[in-house]
TrEMBL record, chains A, B, C, D:
Protein name (database record): Carbonic anhydrase
Keywords for this protein: Lyase, Metal-binding, Zinc
InterPro entries the UniProt entry points to: Beta_CA_cladeB (IPR045066), Carbonic_anhydrase (IPR001765), Carbonic_anhydrase_CS (IPR015892), Carbonic_anhydrase_sf (IPR036874)
Enzyme class, spelled out: lyase
Role summary: Reversible hydration of carbon dioxide.
Cofactor: Zn(2+)
Co-factor: note: Binds 1 zinc ion per subunit.
Family: Belongs to the beta-class carbonic anhydrase family.
Enzyme Commission number, as recorded: 4.2.1.1
Binding site for Zn(2+): C44, D46, H105, C108
One function term, GO molecular function aspect: carbonate dehydratase activity
Length: 213, 213, 213, 213
């Protein structure tokens, strides 16, 4: 067998000597009383876009689902095993969170694969191809727009996909109901890895702007 | 529309003034050259068990999938949209990561729901019920063992589930092949929210021990 | 007759008491020796995007053409009166400038009119309609992309149009020749009125980035 | 590819640290509400005669067209692409500006070329020659007046040309109509690069005088 990765053991030792020392009481309390996060973040697996880093989060503050390209499917209660839908259900019904944020990011490998199905290192018949097919016709429609650079198309699809996921989120009856009654708010955000900037979606127009400016 | 959560905006401002200032060069490089994480972590959505916190991780170092109860399904190339499988495929085939760590944690709400299907706030017919059904007969078998306390049963199932997920991981042909050739290693870990301790799985016996002791 | 606008007379008095006092020698020298600007800027008439403000320019440093939406036509030596082409010719052949910058900006009224020919306050049969028709099929192709918000489409077309103008610039034989011999460089830029930021075009990819970040 | 001119990047940095800091609120407001300039300036591309400098203008206050020698053609709705006419139409019909100022200046290269068609570095068959041919017989008529020095002829033609452009402006039906109804005023001005003085045209006589004296 392989031994546990040394960099993870060292990282955990840093955690024990640093954050845990400072936040011991909080961890004890979170273990004893259970979690009560106010916010669910639906983010990408990308190693460069961890929500807890980007939002300088405290333990216990955000319930975080991460899948490839931060996609949300439509509500499909067909008896299948839907991991993303299960997490949404748990967050909304069991944890009664007040906010759901769908957070995309620049240079997303999943979005890039969706835009370049033929030149991807991944076969479109594989899981990634099927997973990204959740975007339906969106990548193809955008891809025909040859006036935009590859990078511009990528950013555009990253944002289109966030809006699409938010639309899909609202097909969950309890999400729609709670949002209508003002108990739940749904948000979009996009993280720029290079500049560190957070672009926040305007809920009315769907546009992304930097709130700090 | 609702405005973007204030605590997230404030947290991001902290990030920009803190971590981003210190690691600006790293973020620039990660954006320009792409991600090359050596490790994939499959973890739970739980707000108290963020891998980046527990491993004091640097940006770019870990590709992180998070679903409810850190479950991995078996390899099912049936044309459906499998988010967890897509992330595994992306990590192994596109990113060529060297390690996969399935990390569970104590007091997991998903595991608790699996152990208490009738007393859960969640209907077994909902997404959570279906999702946790990935554990098959395991919760039921354990539940008949009335000699263990509820807490002991929970910890036991959390670890059983990690071993089960690792077994399922090995049904992916490329995972099995790469592991056999020594290019990929698969690990298990369990995080204790209360004490901050990391328990690491012994690959031969399946036991969980604290490596720092 | 109407008297000369008071705000202009007052502004000129400020100029005489301020900038002219400080730069009297420069103005005298510029008058005596003629202009030798190193750069031509092709910009929009928009009152919010004056190149001299944005680049904090000194008198004599930039030769500035401004038309609606900073458009450049293709080389059409048909004997007609082409104001933009005449300015380019004057800058390149008489002034021997070293750089041409096509600078667009956000919220451009001309681009907006091109995207909304039916809802514009201006009749498509008027001069504006004809002028913006220089973009040919570009607005129509982009406008069919209903996945992007109106604001996203506008920004996209502003940048597409800059790349289109740069392509048209290169149909001028002397521009192409001098660029090939390294004596002339052609650049693109986009100004964000709200944030004051300058986005500079990457000559290879056509993408726009903020160089100051 | 060539990198973006360093002097422009530096100038923009000065803008961000200076004017933008002082006028941030104004830029934000101008971006949000759109431009509402009261005045259109038709000026020359010359690097020494930027209207915003000469009138110490604030962002948003003047809509500025700049072409070689600040010429205005007659109204020619022939379906061609007329950049100057498009800008006039946009200013008058879309922005509903209250003043149009045709501003010439001393030592104008375009006017000089028109006076010296044979000794110009520019072939009369090129764009500049065609563009300046908008002045028709005016340069030729003046050139036969051998009693005036070359410098006197130049200044004379600069002013003749301004009056000519104003006459052409009035061939636009909406300009004539709005001027008749008192909603639009048309002005002439001439800038002396050497002394910084502004000479303003008397609308009745056509003479240019210095209003500050």
């Amino acid at each position: 067998m392989h031994s546990f990765p040394e960099h993870l053991l060292k990282g955990h030792a840093n955690f024990m000597d640093g954050r845990y020392v400072r936040e011991k009481d909080r961890y004890r309390e979170l273990a004893a009383s259970g979690q009560t996060p106010s916010t669910m973040i639906i983010a990408c697996c990308d190693s460069r876009a961890a929500p807890e880093m980007i939002f300088d989060a405290e333990p216990g503050s955000m319930f975080v689902l991460r899948n490839v390209a931060n996609l949300v499917p439509t509500y499909q209660p067909d008896g299948g095993q839907h991991g993303t839908s299960a997490a949404i259900e748990f967050a909304v019904k069991a944890l009664e969170i007040a906010n759901i944020v769908v957070m995309g990011h620049g240079r997303c490998g999943g979005i890039k694969a969706a835009l370049n199905p033929d030149h991807s290192p991944l076969d479109a018949g594989d899981f990634i191809g099927k997973w990204m097919s959740m975007l339906g016709e969106l990548p193809g429609q955008l891809g025909t727009n040859s006036m935009m650079t590859a990078s511009e198309q990528q950013t555009a699809l990253e944002r289109i996909s966030i809006r699409n996921s938010i639309g899909n989120l609202r097909t969950f009856p309890y999400v729609a109901d709670l949002e209508a009654s003002g108990k739940l708010a749904v948000h979009g955000a996009w993280f720029d890895i290079s500049t560190g900037e957070l672009w926040v979606m305007n809920g009315d127009s769907g546009d992304f702007v930097r709130p700090e400016l």
